[in-house]
Amino acid sequence: MTEQTPIQYRPYTRTDEEQIVDLLRVSMKMHEFPDLQGFWRWKHYENPFGESPGLVAVGDEQVVGVRVFLRWEWCAGTQVYRAVRCVDTATHPDWGRRGIFERLTTGMLEQLPGLGVDFIFNTPNQYSMPGYLKMGWVQVGALPLKVRVRRPGHVAAVAIRREGLGGATEITDEVDNSAVLECLRDPGVRALVETAGAAHEPGLHTARTSAYLEWRYGRNRWYGYRAGFDSRGDSAALAVCRVSRRGSLKELLVCDLVVLPDPGSRRLAARIVGRLAREASVDYVAVSGLGTCLGLSSGFVPVGNRGRDLTVRHLESRLAVDPTTFSAWAASFGDLELF
Prior knowledge:
The chain is of the alpha+beta class. It is built from ten helices and twelve strands.
């Protein structure tokens, strides 16, 4: 390859899969990621919102760059909005400084109006954030959190020692979420999901269907989850959580709550989360501060905006909500979790 070697840009096809997976291993250092090809297929082909659109850069008859947007659907009130999330982006290190990332991104932006997309969202890190802002993304802010501390002595000791929390546990092996899938396939859970979906929550949240939840959590073989469901009379609640380690602390993240809009259902949700926290022996439980039913009465205290940093690019479509402000959102951890 030389500086004059031409680069071709085109939509990716399934025949590019093997080269794309090899590129991800090299450029994103995913050599140890278990069954990366299976992860790609689950993520981009099996998604109930639709197959992911994307572009590849080809040089010397090899895929040297890739840019893929994950399809997503958000609900707010009675409206459903089609969106995409910026996810897998890679450039081969031997082909750097050729403008491949920017060319792939602008090429994808040109395609989106024809795909019926209302807006783009993603959760960039500190290194990629400036590039997105330069290309027209708006920084909405970090996700507000609420936390319930279960082992205050241990948490205080960690704070006194000023230990860094670090990142979440890295993926080294495939996981078994068959118990989660079994829970989600329960007829009571499916009835709850259908009924709760008809309640028309006003803030932006993922269009939760049984197909989505089963794909997102039950058939996910790379991130481990725990699920709990309970119903009493006309009340019902479902919680899907994830256990992670951050430094010497063990956390339970409440990824998704499906709860009927009555006090009894909210109490059930708190009990389910409490039970999952006890079973996992965690130090604290964290939940999104947007549109959740878990609050002070359940022991959850706001701790500020400490979650993932959300950015949005609004397209030309007319929306009844403004996704560039947090006041429009009721997103959960699961909605914004990077995977």
